[in-house]
Amino acid sequence: MTRVLLLGGTGDALRIARQLGREHVYSLAGLGKVPDDLACTVRVGGFGGSEGMARYIEAQRIALVIDATHPYAAQISANAVTASRAARVPCWALRREGWQPQAGDDWRRVGDWAELTAALAAFERPLFTLGREPLAHLDDIPAHQFWTVRCLDPHEGNARARILATRGPFTLEGERALFAAEAFDVVVSKNSGGGATEAKLEAARERGVPVVMLRRPPLPAVDREFERVADLLEALRIAV
């Protein structure tokens, strides 16, 4: 039997997890909703770095690691590769294609928080869709700006920041209504790819709103890489 350790936390990972039997393990960091309707074992929490993950792989007799984490979860992806090599098991990864700018888009690509804040200097009402990272900077908001931060968990804002605790997928109609109500003049986004949160880009395009796009981090090489869930599931069906 090929026992699988699936590292998840994304919608794509959940699709894979729903195809796994009880002998397999779906691992979550615990930052979002924990599913309670899966046949496989659900594990919540960290491993203690790559060494802890390697010990877990060996102790649980895992024969295949699948990294289906977020494209920006670079440290987890690096730990997965290091741990699988140490435990001498293969590591696969689901790495969906990023979004590409279309006609009418105005993207300003940045590599880190310093470049991001510099790119925002001329704007007043940004919509942040980076997850929790902007929450650490609420005390540093420039006097001319009012931030809207969309993330999974509730968090207290302040006089110059509103926190929207909500979870995708987001519809184009909903994004149009939000943009019209809040009059955003720039969107800040990760290039996550997929359809769950892409509607904000179409809404921005329709209104001529620029997008400050955080570049994807480099990720380590794996034994097999997939862009589509269907292709990974087919390979997994054969392997397991």
Automatic annotation (TrEMBL):
Its EC number is 1.3.1.106, 1.3.1.54. The keyword Oxidoreductase applies. Pathway: Cofactor biosynthesis; adenosylcobalamin biosynthesis. GO terms for molecular function: precorrin-6A reductase activity. Keywords: Cobalamin biosynthesis, Oxidoreductase. Pfam families: CbiJ (PF02571). GO terms for biological process: cobalamin biosynthetic process. This is Precorrin-6A reductase. It comes from Paraburkholderia terricola.
